[in-house]
Write a structure and sequence with these properties.
GO molecular function: sequence-specific DNA binding
Strand order of the largest sheet: 2-3-1-4
Keywords: DNA-binding, Transcription, Transcription regulation
Largest sheet: 4 strands, antiparallel
Distance between the termini: 20 Å
Domain HTH asnC-type: 5-66
Number of domains: 2
GO cellular component, one term: cytosol
Protein name: Transcriptional regulator, AsnC family
CATH class of the largest domain: Alpha Beta
Strand content: 15-25%
CATH topology of the largest domain: Alpha-Beta Plaits
Structural class: alpha+beta
Number of strands: 4
CATH architecture of the largest domain: 2-Layer Sandwich
Shape: elongated
CATH superfamily of the largest domain: Lrp/AsnC effector binding domain/regulation of amino acid metabolism (RAM) domain
Helix content: 25-40%
C-alpha cells in the first residue's frame, strides 16, 4: 500500500521518533492540530507500515553490556541451505542487534552487543559450530560516537 505523507505527517513522525511515549495531546499541540486528526494520521501510517514496532531504548552499558563488536564475515558458501542455517543462527541469538548482507569483499556485517570479550568468544564459538564461515574479523568499538534509529525527516 502506497501512502503519501505530507508536512504534518512528517511532524507527527518526528515527534514520535523524539519520544513515542508522549501523549496524543502533546503530539497534537506540537504539530498544531487536534487529537482526532493526529490519531487518524498515526493509524493510517501504522496501517501502511510506515510506523512499525514501538519499543523503548535501553542503556546497554548501564545493564552490563559493555562490549560492542562489529563482526565482518566472509563465506565461501552462498547456497540457499547455508543461508537458511546462517539466518536461523543469527535470529536465534539475542546478542546480534543488527545483521546486514553486503556488496563487496565482506559478505555480512553484524553488530553484536555482549558483556565482555569472553562473552563475545562464547558467541563466536557457538556461531561457528553451527555454520561454516570462511573468515571472521571482530572489531571492538572503543567508543560509541553517535547512535540513532531516527530517520532524517
Amino acid at each position: 500500500m502506497s501512502v503519501r505523507i505530507d508536512a504534518t505527517d512528517r511532524k507527527i513522525l518526528a515527534a514520535l521518533q523524539a519520544d513515542a511515549a508522549q501523549s496524543l495531546d502533546e503530539i497534537a499541540k506540537n504539530v498544531g492540530s487536534s487529537k482526532t486528526p493526529v490519531w487518524n494520521r498515526i493509524r493510517k501510517m501504522r496501517d501502511a507500515g510506515i510506523i512499525g514496532q514501538q519499543t523503548v531504548l535501553l542503556d546497554a552499558e548501564a545493564l552490563g553490556f559493555e562490549a560492542c563488536f562489529f563482526v565482518l564475515i566472509r563465506t565461501s558458501e552462498h547456497d540457499a541451505e547455508w543461508q537458511g542455517k546462517f539466518l536461523k543462527a543469527l535470529r536465534s541469538r539475542a546478542e546480534v542487534q543488527e545483521a546486514h548482507r553486503l556488496a563487496g569483499d565482506i559478505d555480512y556485517i553484524l553488530k553484536v552487543r555482549v558483556q565482555n570479550a569472553r562473552a563475545y568468544d562464547t558467541f563466536y564459538q557457538a556461531l561457528i559450530s553451527e555454520v561454516k564461515v570462511h573468515n571472521v574479523t571482530a572489531l571492538l568499538s572503543m567508543e560509541e560516537i553517535k547512535s540513532t534509529v531516527a530517520l532524517p525527516l
